[in-house]
Amino acid sequence: MNILYICHRLPYPPNKGEKIRAFHQLRYLATRHTIHLACLVDDAEDLQHVEALERYCASIDMVYRPKIGAKLLALRALCTNQPLSVASFYSSALASKVRQRLAVERVDRIVVFSSAMTVYVQQVSGIPKVIDFVDVDSEKWRLFADYHSWMLSWVYRLEARRLARHEVEVARVFDHTILVTDREAQILQEHVPDRPISVIPNGVDLEYFMPSPHRGTVTEPPALVFTGMMDYFPNVDAVNYFCHEIFPLVREVVPAVQFYIVGRNPTQQVRQLSRQPNVIVTGAVSDVRPYLVRARVAVAPLRIARGVQNKILEAMAMGLPVVGTPAALQGTWATTTDGVRMAESPRAFAHALVTLLEDHALRHQCGLQARRYVQEHHQWDEHNARLEALLREMVVAQATA
User: Fold this and answer.
1) What pLDDT is recorded for position 70?
2) Which residues of 46-77 are buried (b: 16+ CB within 10 A; e: fewer)?
3) In what order do the strands lie in the sheet with 223-227?
4) What is the pLDDT of residue 150?
5) How many whole angstroms separate alpha carbon 258 and alpha carbon 277?
6) According to the model, what pLDDT value does residue 87 have?
């Protein structure tokens, strides 16, 4: 098949959530089909990675636009009925490239990654189209509103309403919809009960994220780790919550414990956390694996989360126990027999961490369980084979009004 694959960011390097899923989908499909990629680039550093994608793609149509351009488009959209996130990812130049590609290539299937990019092919007919929402993003904006001042809260609630309408419209005109968890699928299915929706979870690169042979070695001082983009609000909120509400309780019992915050672009608020005892903010690192090896436990204190957290899967793949909130763990089937501990309150969270920090045998057992869990449930090839099968079977469905 000739597949037109449209995504909102260059899917390389696979170093953040949406890039990881998009890259693994693209790489798998490219082994059996011809891929024509269309995307925006909002980070100048990503331009150096275009060549790496050429081995997977027959063509790459991209448009570089600085992030400030997206913000200006979002501000302008406030005066319209359009979702801000959809407006911010629109580029007339990319739209032109997509039209030209469809004119010169015989495209058999169209895959769109994220609701923000559907406008580029929403009016295209006669070619089966699948939308991978990943998460129901409108729900994320509703959650954001609860953690911001009244002005931003108003904007986020407005975006949640607009984007929810857009998601329903897209599900009605695309031939098939994909989401990452059953919970996300149920939310959308309530609004479009007559439309086809499939659940395809995230995977994890099990060859890259391998348990260290030194994992069993007891290191001093003991360490906890959190990984992620540190200018993303849910991550910023998570580490602030952890440092102020949970970590002091852990240090009361294990005074030497250290907490590593590992990830690019830490905000000023995150950087200031390093003033607290035993908190280390690394900023960008070339490889997160040494920090996962160094740590005894990975923490996921997210209060705002949708879908599957890649940071959790990567830690588990490296044989690291995880303690997380219900919000962080909602996208997995993992239980206490899979090397994770769920904690709702700061005191329960701290207790789970102290137990794992002090019990080497339990920690080792949980690490083995965690690795086994991702091997059984989060193999990229298995999930992407389901995507390929769906694309093969698709026909142009009768859209509903």
Assistant:
1) 83
2) beeebeebeebbeebbbbebeeeebeebbeeb
3) 279-283, 258-262, 223-227, 297-300, 322-324, 340-342
4) 87
5) 8
6) 93
- Determine the Cα–Cα distance for residues 70 and 247; give it in Å rounded to an integer: 37
Model pTM score: 0.92
Task: Indicate left, alpha or beta for 258 from its phi (over 0: left) and psi (-120 to 50: alpha).
Answer: beta
Could you tell me which of 353, 365, 341, 364 has the C-alpha nearest to residue 253? 353
The neighbouring-strand residues paired with 260 are 225, 280
Find tokens 């509703």 and name the residue: 142
Residues in the chain, pLDDT under 70: 214-219, 395-401
What's the pLDDT at 399? 45
Does residue 212 sit in helix, strand or coil? coil
For tokens 């160094």, name the residue. Answer: 294
Cβ atoms < 10 Å from Cβ of 305: 23
CB contact at 8 A, 33 and 3: yes
- What pLDDT, on a 0 to 100 scale, did the predictor assign at position 219? 61
H or E stretch covering 64: strand 59-64
Q: Are the beta carbons of 355 and 362 closer than 8 angstroms?
A: yes
What strands lie across the sheet with 2-7, from one edge to the other?
A: 59-64, 34-41, 2-7, 109-113, 129-134, 176-179, 197-199
Enumerate long-range contacts of 77-84, CB under 8 Å, 24 or more apart.
Answer: 78/155, 78/158, 81/162, 82/162, 83/116, 83/159, 83/162, 83/163, 83/165, 83/166, 84/155, 84/159, 84/162
Nearest by Cα to 306 from 89, 136, 83 = 136
Nearest-5° Cα angle at 300, 298 to 305: 155
How many residues does the structure list for the chain? 401
